[in-house]
Design brief:
The relative contact order is 0.12. The strands form 2 sheets. Strands 5, 6, 7, 8, 9 and 10 form a 6-stranded mixed beta sheet that branches. A 4-stranded parallel beta sheet has the order 2-1-3-4, sandwiched between helices. The protein starts with a helix and ends with a helix. Helix 6 packs antiparallel against helix 7 and helix 7 packs parallel to helix 15. It contains 15 helices and 10 strands. By secondary structure, it is an alpha/beta fold.
């Protein structure tokens, strides 16, 4: 005979299994929290905006997302704050964390759907389908993928028609200390390539400090920074005048460009727009 303790353990295991398993029913009863800006865009693209009750601090698009309660930065989540909102599902980007917080949320009976980081249009399409399946929105997901692929074909045609293949460097920081540059296997490297540029930081992997010698030797013709980081560094003219950057073609020509971190680095459903806009910025002469 199963004792009271066994029954409780069995019931708890059943609740956890239900929370972790796919639940493709109608989403009308869902209370969704999305953490990571690209994930939030996917939730809206699938028509799930009315079920969204909170987002993280990187979720700035569409405008309706900014009006929702915020649960902090997606890499520094606190389980208590999220659970206090009574969600049924947390949809998280692949870099969300810490892992212990996600585990705590899951163990509390909240389904956690994790979407891997995207680096291309095929990844974005896969993420749309994954979230669509999780909420029984496969039809909406396929419609969103069709729109994505149509827009991507048009964007590719525009990007291909632009002249040149400029040398581009993405900097996370500039000013005090060595600048942090985007290397291989980063969103910055991926979007530079999709826009028709060549990443001069591609000799290293990830985001790492770059020496003055390496920065100058790379001879970037364009330097990109997130718009808020560029503002914090004093603006384009001030960054262009920094000793190492002043020795590069980008510094001499004043081609220091701020980009929208969510649009250009988020790899959400607006990826065709991001590639098209960045291509115009880096491949049109100043």
């Amino acid at each position: 005979m199963i004792g009271r303790r066994g029954l409780l353990l069995s019931a708890g295991a059943g609740l956890l299994a239900a929370a972790c398993s796919p639940r493709p029913e109608a989403a009308s009863g869902e209370r969704i929290i999305a953490v990571s800006g690209d994930v939030t865009e996917i939730v809206y693209a699938l028509g799930l905006g009315p079920q969204l009750i909170a987002v993280d601090d990187t979720s700035s698009y569409p405008a309706a997302a900014e009006a929702l309660p915020h649960v902090g930065y997606f890499r520094q989540l606190a389980a208590e704050g999220i659970l206090s909102l009574g969600p049924t599902t947390l949809v998280a980007g692949g870099d969300a964390g810490p892992a212990a917080a996600l585990t705590q949320i899951e163990q509390a009976g909240v389904r956690v759907v994790t979407v891997p980081p995207a680096r291309g249009v095929a990844d974005v399409a896969a993420n749309l389908r994954q979230v669509g399946e999780a909420f029984g929105r496969q039809t909406e997901a396929e419609a969103a993928v069709a729109t994505l692929e149509r827009d991507w074909a048009a964007a590719q045609a525009e990007v291909t028609a632009l002249p040149g293949r400029p040398r581009v460097l993405f900097l996370l920081t500039a000013g005090a200390g060595s600048p942090m540059a985007g290397g291989r296997d980063t969103a910055a490297d991926a979007i530079i390539g999709l826009a028709g540029g060549a990443n001069t930081g591609a000799d290293h992997e990830g985001y790492k400090p770059i020496s003055t010698e390496a920065l100058v030797a790379g001879a970037p013709e364009v330097i990109l920074m997130m718009s808020h980081a560029l503002d914090a560094a004093g603006g384009a003219a001030r960054v262009a005048a920094l000793p190492a950057i002043a020795l590069t073609p980008a510094g001499r020509e004043g081609r220091i460009i701020g980009v929208d971190p969510l649009l250009h680095l988020g790899f959400g459903p607006r990826l065709p727009q991001a590639a098209r806009e960045l291509a115009q910025l880096i491949r049109t002469p100043a």
